[in-house]
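Hi V.,

You were right to ask for the full record rather than a summary. Here it is.
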Amino acid sequence: MYLADEAWPDLESYFASDSRALVPLGSTEQPGPHLPEATDHIIAESFARAAAAETGYLCTPTIDIGVSPHHRQFHGTMWVDAPAFRDYVESLTRNLAYHGIDRVVFVNAHGGNVQHLREVGRRLRDDGTLYAIEWMWDESITDMIEDVFETPGPHGGPKETSLIQHLAGELVHEDRITDARDGGLTEFGDGTGRKYGARTFYDAIDNTENGVLGDQTDASAEVGEELFEAALDNLCGLCGWLDDQPAGDLMPAEHV
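Predicted structure:
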């Protein structure tokens, strides 16, 4: 069920019998010259809506601007400061608790949001409001991604390209894919952007001139569909696990 499509009297029965919600979160930022700036929030909403349809969870509207100041040099990238993002997500989630929700999955598709969603989840759990957990689609299928792509890339690479080719192919600039690879960074590792053990970069442009890491020429809509279905299975599995947990077991343990 998608919350925003429903009239309030029709939501009463859900809140009376169910206490679970999916909150999709992404970003509006550059993902290279070949993909739309909506890439991350398209992916997040697609997973959340599909999982809601399969599990019966409620799906909220998408938070589509996240913590992205590290992409600010590229035209159109939007962001909010990290403290404002955390406070906003926390406030929104407390609103869900007011309606009776006691467990939430943050369906996330932007790496810059991860640590902040974890912090929000801790705040809400520590004060006994509800249990909220962050889920990142590509972290649920890391082995599959490594098997499918020779150079996956953490940003704007073939995994994101394949998903958008599958979910919103009309938004992909197919004629720029080779240029995206050639103008980006395809050779990187644990030492990239580091000196003597210190991480020396702050912005994406410090490592990649066109905002891309990875080889997009391995991408395809067919692979994107396979990735989507595999990650969706994991998201639905997480929802099932949450259903099975007694509410008390999700809250902090007593002091030793």
